[in-house]
Amino acid sequence: MAVVLNKDNVLRMKFMTGMHNTDPFFVAREEYLFQMMQEATNIHAHLRQSDLPALQREGHTWVIARAQMKIDAYNLWTQDVHVNTWAQEPELFYFPRVTTASASCGKPLFTAVCWWVVLDLATSRPIQPSDMIARFGLPPHDETHPRFPARYKRFRANTTPEIIPLHTCTPVPRYEDTDSNNHINNVSYVQWMLDSLHREFRDTYKAVDMDVFWLQQVYLGDRLTMCSGPAREAAQNPDVPHYYHYLTRTEADGNKSLVWAAESQWNRRTNLIHETDSKRLGWNE
């Protein structure tokens, strides 16, 4: 896994797609894209002395509030993925990080923006991200370093549509899901969203757009339910399904709290593999 951090403040990494990163069709899993994004941003933070261990020594921590990922195509088993990540100008307390990925041939795979917040561990209150900007640095403003739209959209539960819960599951947080601050790792929520979907659906479709909100922290022992499906009042196109996903926690008093939410769009998997890769899989024969 090669890592380069140049003077333009962009971290560049190369990942090799292992068998465990792919689905039954040897195509990269959706959660693997989030794992690459998370690993690249974490390594970037580490090289800027701003990773979780460093922040915790300072009495601070990172939390992610939102991530939006747009997927152009999927890579296959054994293929390399070239990932770039950088910081962008902050908005209020939010610290946007952009991640792009491409195949070795140069064709784009995905673009993602995630919004992070630095919290004071003593007060659990956010702090201004100006210090983080100073540590990370920003890319130059030129044609080779475009800025991506990164205006934060606040999640509003009262505007979320009622869904037809076609897919449900009751995930059980495992020790392997926890990270160094004893919270459930961000990628595990995405995994649970995918776990809620029926195999027939996942055999047919791959995600092309995911907008994800982490609303509350989840811990070992929490009683959780993930519901996924289309909006009840919306017409559905079977070629490009549009789903919503809600993760709720059953509290000690029996009430349910919404702890995570996402909106996703899908396309048939045959439309999301580059032509040369389709031939490799035998889909064009």
TrEMBL record:
Span of domain Acyl-ACP thioesterase-like C-terminal: 173-234
GO molecular function, one term: acyl carrier activity
Ranges for domain Acyl-ACP thioesterase N-terminal hotdog: 31-128
UniProt keyword Lipid metabolism present: yes
Keywords carried by this UniProt record: Fatty acid biosynthesis, Fatty acid metabolism, Hydrolase, Lipid biosynthesis, Lipid metabolism, Transit peptide
Membrane-spanning ranges: none
Protein family per UniProt: Belongs to the acyl-ACP thioesterase family.
Protein name: Acyl-ACP thioesterase
Lineage: Bacteria, Pseudomonadati, Spirochaetota, Spirochaetia, Spirochaetales
